[in-house]
Amino acid sequence: MTSDVADDLYDGGVVLVARDGEIGLHEAVGYSDRSTGRLAATNDVFWIFSTTKQFTNVLVLKAFEQGLLSPITKVVDVVPEFRGSDRFRVGAKDRVSVADLMTHRAGTSPTPWPLPPMECADLSRTITAIGEMDLVAPPGERVSYSPCLAHALLGEIVVRTLGKGRSFTQTLHDELLDPLGMTDTRMGAPKDWSDRLVPVVAKFPPGQFFSPQDIIDTASAAHEGAELPWVGCVSTAADLFRFAEMLRRGGELGGERILSPASIAMATTVQTGDLINERYNRIVAEKHWQPWRASIGLGFMMRGTGLRQTFFGTMSSPGTFGGYGAGSSQFFVDPERELTFVCLTAGVLGEAENLHRFQTLSDMTVAAAN
């Protein structure tokens, strides 16, 4: 990481590695803000982008456990607005299940914004806009990573089931953040944390799936008071470690049970078979990689089998699971080795560079743990 920062690949970051719950490494490297010379600190707060989705997934799993819905519940049975206002454009939306959303098989549009970014702070408006959008693929048949729509819908499903009259943000705090003691995690960046927030800087040129402006817009949209269950959280490496440790320990941490072992077993079993993740077809072709096997559990990204490109490294066990976000953040748990890895970085990389960076760091971590 020090070498990468010296080469200006990215600006800095915080890395945390633990074995069987014992932290062996928790270090800040490089800069939080290279432009001002602000050095990285272990308590830096980062926009974690799509790593947010893993928090939303856990809330959905909690709703399963309470009998409020199931993986095979149809989305329209909970959010009828998903059909849209034009009955002639419903198409296959009635077939989309909660599991389809969690495994990115719903056939929703790959757009990161169903509304202009700053208008997405209101989750109800986002859901209304999604209802007016057509599916772009048959549900359940293909995997195409959904940057926004799937987890916006899952967030609304949480509100209408587990929420029981609470907002998504309040539900997130009551059911997950507060019980785990994740005091440095918020949905939307608090204004009074400005001295700890790591600025979002794009370290890649235009022409990729996301543009540099998309990344900046995402951080701007995730402001205090915004509700973006797909991309809106800020957090620290230590807080994300607490979340990952809860998962590694079968759903419990510090005497607080968040999930049952049965839920985590279901969520960390590959549900997508041999399907490829079509969202990455372009980069696969450009880099001459093997087809990008999806390897998605019920919400969590999985290492899977075989030697191929993977964020979690080539040496981690097949059951390794975790999440990642927009060229800058990642965590994983290797249950076979009882190994937990968290890395949050300053300076958002392009997709290929980010995958190579985290694949390399993951392999180095697994090798060190052995």
Describe, in plain words, how this protein is organized in 3D.
The protein is an alpha+beta fold and 370 residues long. The chain has a single domain (2-369), classed as DD-peptidase/beta-lactamase superfamily (Beta-lactamase, 3-Layer(aba) Sandwich). Helices cover 31% and strands 15% of the residues. The protein has helices at residues 2-6, 52-65, 75-78, 98-102, 123-131, 149-160, 168-177, 212-221, 237-248, 261-267, 281-287, 351-369, and strands spanning 12-19, 22-33, 38-39, 46-47, 186-187, 233-235, 252-253, 256-257, 301-302, 321-325, 329-334, 339-346. The strands form three sheets. The protein has a seven-stranded antiparallel β-sheet, sandwiched between helices. A three-stranded antiparallel β-sheet has the order 4-6-5. The protein has a two-stranded antiparallel sheet with strand order 7-8. A hairpin with a 4-residue loop joins strand 11 and strand 12. The radius of gyration is 19 Å and the shape is globular. The relative contact order is 0.18. The model has no long low-confidence stretch (mean pLDDT 96). Pfam families: Beta-lactamase. This is Serine hydrolase. Keywords: Hydrolase.
Keywords summarizing the entry:
370 residues; alpha+beta; Beta-lactamase; 3-stranded antiparallel β-sheet; globular; hydrolase
